[in-house]
Amino acid sequence: MNRNDYKIEDTFLWGGATAANQVEGAYNIDGKGLSTFDIIPFFTKEELKDRTGLPSEISEDEMLAVLNNKTSHTNFPKRRGTNFYSYFKEDIALFAEMGYKVYRFSIAWTRLFPTGFEKLPDKKGINFYRSVIAECKRYGIEPLITMSHYEMPWVISDQLNGWESKETIELFLKYTKVLLDEFSADVKYWIPFNEMNMTLISPYHGGGIIPERIRSNNIQSASFQAVHNQFVAAAKTINYGRSIANDLQFGCMIARLETYAETCKPEDQLAALKEEQMNVFYYEVAATGEYPRYLDRYLIENTIEFEKNEAEVKLLKNNIYDFLAFSYYNTYVVSEKKNEKTVDGKGNGNLIDSQENPYVKISDWGWPIDSIGFRITLNRLYDKFRLPLFVAENGLGAHDTFENGKIHDEYRIDYLSDHIEALTEAVKDGVKVLGYTAWTAIDLVSCGTNEMSKRYGFIYVDVDDYGKGTYERYRKDSFYWYKEVIASNGESIK
């Protein structure tokens, strides 16, 4: 046994990540169309008390009110982001200063095809992303592109009910073919969809599905149809990508929900197993090209149906992924039956409800902080699927205090150092990990809560929840810490 095989390699891709809908802004500049996230307003904490689900899940009535200018809401944070559209050269220079080897970002579908139905892409959108990629390459930063980070053209959501319709598959393929034709010479790593499991958790958020307009027999059927259609679209994209270049790498990404049973009671253990299965079945499809057998029982018992044909089944089988990507923020605790200690995910961006875990600390937004769970999940995923892993998101959302141009975020350093240490231990365990892109490279609008107050970045952006501020960039203490981590290839953590 060569112990050099059990350490972080020199080729390891250290970096950070963002999403177009959270950083770019310029929502109506240079021909960009309206996305499904552009119409989600900011909800105050008082408003969130009366809502169910994630703040990014809005009703048809709310959506129509926004589009017809009949809403009292005037604050739409994702329309302005942190103005990466204007600051991208400055921001990428800061990433390079930290020593990034990779920068994960997404492309806004609506910059290339404003409604999704256009025959030809908008050249201004192509030129913008070509400039972003060129700026990365200038500093030796490898781009990792997410083709769809939730947002999609609102018109597709309106006319086809998003990913519930099979017509959306070809519209997406038209878009991804342009990306591959234009950028594959400079971009090796691709993720077709961000956190695919979000579509079952929040149908509008992940699939552009308007619940009041579903064509299926129930919302779960509509959501599973959307997931299947996304798998087919990704398989067609992978197939096309491999036809034009043999060195491209495609990754399937989910939000990893590492789950603990509340007790050693067999019923609790079984509940945890079922949660685990529903989280990783996406990887079963990605790694084997087939839906797992355990999913059949779940579909039958919940009266869920979705359409798939032989050609699609064959397509999935012939286009498996090269690596498995995931976001990891916390762990969840489940029991056979929920009790009064349930931690409600509503309003704080948490994906699912959870029982309390008395053994871990909690973040400002009520998220459990569990670095050991990170090591556990890395081991479990690699042991089961034997495909290289990529940590596409990992970070801490927190309140930052900006004083005299300084941000002392030792809490973020503590969180990330513990998780990176867990990563290095997982590598020593024999886990193959390609890279780590911390969430986030720079402050941005929170995906789950639509606020700037919940900050993740190594770089502070001077703007608040209502768009007030200078938008100037400032290095946090964590900026200098992460620079040292990268320079030492993960050996200098604490």
From TrEMBL:
Matching InterPro entries: GH, GH_1_N_CS, Glyco_hydro_1
Alphabetical list of PROSITE patterns matching this protein: GLYCOSYL_HYDROL_F1_2
Domain of life of the source: Bacteria
Keyword terms of this UniProt record: Glycosidase, Hydrolase
Name of a matching Pfam family: Glyco_hydro_1
PANTHER family to which the protein is assigned, alphabetical: 6-PHOSPHO-BETA-GLUCOSIDASE ASCB-RELATED, GLYCOSYL HYDROLASE
Family from the record: Belongs to the glycosyl hydrolase 1 family.
Name of the protein in question: 6-phospho-beta-glucosidase
Organism lineage: Bacteria, Bacillati, Bacillota, Bacilli, Lactobacillales
